[in-house]
Amino acid sequence: MECYQKPAASMGKVKKSKLEEDDEDIRCGLGPFQGEWLQKFASKKSYLLTYSFLGIFQAMFVSYSIATLTTLEKQFKLKSQTTGILLAGNEVSQILLSLLMTYFGGHGHRPRLAALGVLFSGAASLLVVAPHFIYGQATAITNVTRSLDVCSTSPDSVMPTMNPEDSCDDTTQIGPMIYIFMSQFVSGIGTTLFSILGITYLDDNVKRKQTPMLIGLMSALRLIGPVFGYGLAAICMRIYVNLSETTTLKPRDPSWIGAWWLGFMVIGIIQISAFWLLACYPRRLPKKSTTAQGFGTIASLQQHTQAKRPEARTFKKFPAALRRLLTNKILMLNNCAGVFFVFALSGYLTFLPKYMETQFQQSSSVSGLVNGLTGIMFMCTGLLLAGYLVSRFKFPAWKLQVWDVIIGILWVTLLVTFAFIGCNAKPIHGLENAENGDGAMLGIPVTPCSEDCNCIANRFAPACSEDGEVNFFSACHAGCTIMNHTSDQTIFSDCSCIKEWKNSTSMTDSGSWYNGRAIGGYCPSNCFQMFLIYITVMGFIKFLSSMGRVSNILITFRCVPEEDKSFAIGLGYLLTSLFAFIPAPIVYGAVVDQACILWRTDSCGVRGNCWIYDQEKMRLYLHILTASVVTIGVVFDFFTCFAVRDLDLYAEDNEEKVGDNGMVASTNNKELQPMLSSRPPPPTSKLNEEEFIKTLEA
Fold first, then answer.
1. pTM of the full predicted structure?
2. Does residue 671 or residue 186 have the better pLDDT?
3. Which residues contact 323 (CB under 8 A, 6 or more apart)?
4. What do you get for the CA distance between the two ends of the chain, in Å?
């Protein structure tokens, strides 16, 4: 009599069956926390919401960095070209690591790798705050014996010609730059993991005809991030940088430094607290059964018997995979067009807040908020509309590319137009004939009427003569000795550089000149109306151009084999980082600096950031450079139109067809379809999947 013998424990750990491994691949949770209540979240809708929620904070970091750029320049006395180099740290990490991360990560557990990207981004947000507490707490320049805003000729109130915090020791400036660069470097790693692996994971788990709509929806939801980023920047910029100190400066004062570090802390803490939400998603989402009454089908069973994990990637196969992408004509043309568009857009948007401050005389908080809100609103609308239209009408690839060409031509036309249209802002007294570029002044010239006022040369707080005709570098430079505050403005009086004629009541004297008054802030101009027109037109262009983003991503997905999808996106990131994101801020910073007419200098004469720009030259340089780069991108888009004529964007890899008894056969495997009618139907009782599989294999 034979007896059943239980396997000995010493035989070692039993290897998991294929069925058990596949079951783990579609279960939500982390480690032992994989309860059944979690499994209902293993769906594309749940993933879309989670990914978009975390993407909001990813995007907030970028927009917040741009909105606080000028504030960082002020606090650490950096030039535009220097900040452009520091911001390139994001792209340096993508150049060094994006190919490897996407080559191997594309075949790994993508939700967990994307969650790791969120964690990296949170660390980057906290890292950029460090220089404020270590190096950069600004000395409150109001903690002196008199107000720096007014003129004082008393010998006891002689003030230094430069700001008190200026020092000849420039070693402390290296530290902040290292922290800012490393923050951007770490952020680049997080962005690559999150953006590339997260979106390809969704595309692999939905039908191809749904991809355009989901890409548009996901991109639109993530664009909410910049709205919050600009809004958070507007709030933080109204708080003085040193929370424990008070100052008489106002947020509209060009010398004002807002609490830029506060927003980074908020973003970083939220990301580190919520990254695990994305890590809970399975390696792949389970597919819905296509039979009624919950019966098993061939398609659902293939999930266990035929669904295989991607073949492991090795360094040996890396050159061959890279060669496939580099020789793909559609992919390379699409990437080349993208490089030039990203070059133009990233450089232009980086310095757009500074342009608005200079050209339209708006504060950094107002320009950042208005530009962010209008731009994001138009772009979200464009992405959602494009996703719906492409999914609904299934436009061929060449028509989508023709649309991109038309939008590019329209954008170039408007850029050239705005290069010659501006507003007539009044110049600063003493800088009417100032040169720009290398001939720019390293300090405001002293006029005879204020030479005894002991004004600080780097104390930029513009004031306007009462008649609204002349701007002064500050009320002190206007020779004003008295300052009074009202509910909405600051009034300076007894200004020796502003003369006011007053008629005499005496019959023998016709009148005499008296010291006039000045109002804090720039002189009023017609800039605000032009500012609104500019924002509206550029918002419309963003609306149209954002509609092309869906098609660009879709073409990249469909022009390469499935196994190379993540790798192809990684190559695109590498090219745009190397040839667009890194050089663009540097080139644009150098061009913008050529329009400077007054540099800030420290007490040692070392040049810092630019105080005042030549409005006309800055407008011309910025728009003509952008229009030239966009034109090159349009040319590549034109050639891409011909390359994608035969590219099918919507055909499924494995089209499914329902058989007579409710089972699903692949239309790409026609030999299987006649066999469906001869196969036994699934049992009506509780289905034992392993037994049923054995029956099918018998």
1. 0.70
2. 186
3. none
4. 30
